[in-house]
């Protein structure tokens, strides 16, 4: 189970303010490409599951993820997640020719075929994400600029075994610095599938 705090920033100015304040704690920046897939008969989405292949400019391998049963309440996300590395050329080949997913030797893809009964895969498209990673006050923060075809979203994520405690620390930091924020109400994938940016509170 992956448990994360997810706080949405309203605009590029708020995002810039956060990244400026956190600059001394920057560890790395990832430029990510996220591609999503379902079964031809919506076998995954009908079970609230999603298959993702993620590419990063900092990693010679790509990551295959199966996420399921996501719940996002009061800025805290809980989701079942299974991940596995693949060679990037193989991942790129699967994105270019989705049918290859049915033949790849992969533990996760085997799960998708056997547990969800997916016989044929379809590509759903995807989006790009720029992720700044910080080590700050004992927390690993990921500050995201997510670029959809219909607009850009900004978000702070923090995976933690104590999400309520991490959320409190983050909210205090944002309030002390006069930075507006709200609790994220949808995952990046849900926003992508909706085709529009969620309204701000």
Q: What does the secondary structure layout of this molecule look like, with pairings?
A:
Elements: E1 2-9, H1 12-22, E2 26-39, E3 49-56, E4 61-73, E5 76-87, H2 88-96, H3 107-115, E6 121-136, E7 139-148, E8 151-159, H4 163-176, E9 182-183, H5 188-194
Antiparallel strand pairs: 1-5, 1-8, 1-9, 2-3, 2-6, 3-4, 4-5, 6-7, 7-8
List keywords for this structure.
201 residues; alpha+beta; Hypothetical Protein Pfu-838710-001; 8-stranded antiparallel β-barrel; 5 helices; 25% helix; CYTH domain-containing protein; CYTH-like_dom_sf
Can you walk me through this structure?
Strand 3 and strand 4 form a beta hairpin. This protein has an eight-stranded antiparallel barrel with strand order 1-5-4-3-2-6-7-8, surrounded by five helices. It has five helices and nine strands, in the order βαββββααβββαβα. The radius of gyration is 17 Å and the shape is globular. It is an alpha+beta fold. The protein has one domain: Hypothetical Protein Pfu-838710-001 (Beta Barrel).
Taking pLDDT < 50 over at least 5 consecutive residues as the criterion, the unreliable ranges are none
Q: What is the CATH topology?
A: Hypothetical Protein Pfu-838710-001
Count the strands?
9
The largest sheet has its strands arranged as 1-5-4-3-2-6-7-8
Helical/strand content category: alpha+beta
**What sort of overall outline do the alpha carbons produce when their principal axes are compared?**
globular
Number of domains: 1
Number of helices: 5
- Could you tell me the strand content as a percent range? over 45%
Radius of gyration from the CA trace? 17 Å
The percent range for helix content is 10-25%
CATH architecture: Beta Barrel
Biggest sheet descriptor: 8 strands, antiparallel, barrel
SSE string, helices as H and strands as E: EHEEEEHHEEEHEH
State the name of the first-level CATH class: Mainly Beta
- Superfamily (CATH H level) name: Hypothetical Protein Pfu-838710-001
How far the N terminus sits from the C terminus, by CA atoms, comes to 29 Å
What is the overall pLDDT average? 96
């Amino acid at each position: 189970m992956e448990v994360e705090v997810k706080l949405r920033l309203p605009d590029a100015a708020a995002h810039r303010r956060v990244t400026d304040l956190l600059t001394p704690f920057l560890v790395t920046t990832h430029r990510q490409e996220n591609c999503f897939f379902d079964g031809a008969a919506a076998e995954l989405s009908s079970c609230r599951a999603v298959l993702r292949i993620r590419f990063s400019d900092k990693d010679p391998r790509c990551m295959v993820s199966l996420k399921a049963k996501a719940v996002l309440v009061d800025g805290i996300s809980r989701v079942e997640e299974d991940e596995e590395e693949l060679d990037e050329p193989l991942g790129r080949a699967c994105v270019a020719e989705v049918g290859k997913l049915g033949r790849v030797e992969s533990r996760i893809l085997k799960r998708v075929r056997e547990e969800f009964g997916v016989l044929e895969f379809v590509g759903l498209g995807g989006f790009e994400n720029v992720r700044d990673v910080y080590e700050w006050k004992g927390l690993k923060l990921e500050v995201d600029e997510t670029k959809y075809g219909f607009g850009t979203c900004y978000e702070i994520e923090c995976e933690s075994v104590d999400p309520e405690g991490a959320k409190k620390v983050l909210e205090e930091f944002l309030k002390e610095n006069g930075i507006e924020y709200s609790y994220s109400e949808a995952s990046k994938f849900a926003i992508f599938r909706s085709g529009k940016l969620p309204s701000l509170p």
